[in-house]
Specification:
Blueprint (H helix, E strand, L loop, with lengths): L1 H13 L5 H4 L7 E11 L4 H8 L7 H13 L8 E9 L7 E11 L1 E9 L2 E8 L7 E4 L8 E4 L4 E2 L7 E8 L7 E8 L2 E8 L7 E7 L4 E3 L4 E3 L5 E3 L1 E3 L6 E8 L28 E8 L5 E8 L8 E8 L5 E3 L5 E5 L13
Parallel strand pairs: 1-10, 8-15, 11-20
Antiparallel strand pairs: 1-4, 2-3, 2-5, 5-9, 6-7, 7-13, 9-10, 11-17, 12-15, 12-18, 13-14, 16-17, 18-19, 19-22, 20-21
């Protein structure tokens, strides 16, 4: 009888049928091919924001120059192009451990992968453009609910170098059924920009920072965390005309008014009421001709959300103060500012 059963199983194996699917009612050990289609979904207000704030009928030469340079500078951030993707498949019971993991160079805005994985239910997490971000690392990814994008911990940090995209998808992989899974990845970081008119101010230098943004992103729960308050050093965007300067930060979002989850499926995810107090701030440090420094802190009461660009226009006065053009943005000024008053700023 043992020899007979062995012969039958060998025949079934030769025919391409997995014996485990016949003799074991628990189908989790059976392997199956399944196709996953990945596509980046860029939900952003960048075009609208530039048109509203800089490309209007009343635009100055500075506005138009800044708009053109911002489009160029942020082209690798607000993009639907993924260089690399990291794919993890987790158990849906107990500790939700990772059961399967793959990494690919995608180099496209959409791609398909065929996976050979056991039949069972999974929670699938995907991350794109992490490889060259320069500031974030994927940590605790062996367990589904602890997988976190975490920033470098420093008082003053540089900008993100890539637009980060993530996805989460429950998957019920069935045996003997042709299945396609569509995975849409949405942006997890965002950007701020300040365009400053320096005409007549006589300043020697200007440095810009921003603060009030998340430090971590839990991928499965799509939840941002604020473990501490890093200061983001803005990158200067070079302009080809005199009389103005432009600065950009790329970072995680700010706190929201009611919650801190990623916004992906709304008709207009960037329209929101104002909070009673500032949710994030821009800090400028202007060096005057006599060598003294003026600090201006601009407080923004509207949240900065995933995929969003916020542009602020401002004017530098001869005392170094930076006044925003938007009256809803409050600001405070410290003349003859000393570095010791705000030690976390690395000027």
């Amino acid at each position: 009888m043992k020899q007979f059963l062995h012969t039958v199983l060998c025949i079934l194996w030769a025919a391409g049928i997995s014996a485990c699917c016949l003799v074991d009612e628990d189908m989790r050990d059976c392997q199956a091919d399944h196709k996953l289609d990945y596509q980046l979904q860029l939900v952003t207000n960048m075009t609208t924001e530039l048109k509203t704030e800089l490309e209007t009928n009343l635009s100055t030469a500075l506005d138009l120059e800044a708009a053109a340079k911002l489009k160029e500078h942020l082209s690798d951030i607000f993009t639907d192009y993924a260089h690399d993707v990291d794919l993890s498949f987790y158990d849906v019971t107990a500790d939700s451990v990772r059961l399967h993991h793959e990494s690919h160079i995608m180099d496209a805005n959409q791609s398909s992968y065929t996976l050979y994985i056991p039949v069972r239910q999974y929670m699938h997490l995907a991350l794109a453009n992490q490889m060259f971000n320069g500031l974030t690392e994927l940590e605790n990814e062996e367990l589904c609910h602890s997988a976190t994008l975490r920033q470098t911990v420093k008082d003053t940090i540089p900008c993100h170098k890539t637009g980060l995209f993530t996805a989460r998808l429950p998957m019920d992989v069935k045996e003997g059924v042709d299945q396609n899974f569509d995975v849409h990845l949405y942006m997890a970081n965002c950007a701020t920009a300040i365009v400053v008119d320096t005409t007549g101010s006589g300043i020697k230098d200007l440095k810009v920072y921003a603060t009030g943004f998340a430090t971590d992103f839990n991928i499965c729960d799509s939840l941002y965390r604020f473990r501490y308050s890093p200061v983001v050093r803005a990158d200067e965007v070079s302009l080809d005309i005199p009389g103005g300067m432009c600065f950009v930060t790329v970072n995680f979002p700010s706190k929201d008014i009611d919650e801190t989850k990623s916004v992906i499926d709304t008709d207009d995810p960037f329209v929101s009421p104002s909070a009673p107090d500032p949710l994030w701030r821009i800090r400028t440090y202007t060096t005057l001709a006599d060598g003294t420094v003026t600090e201006t802190i601009l407080g923004v009461t509207k949240p900065l959300r995933p995929g969003q660009l916020k542009v602020i226009k401002a004017k530098v006065h001869d005392n170094g103060s930076v006044q925003p053009g938007d009256p809803t943005i409050g600001f405070s000024v410290t003349l003859d500012w000393k570095k010791g008053l705000s030690g976390e700023i690395e000027l």
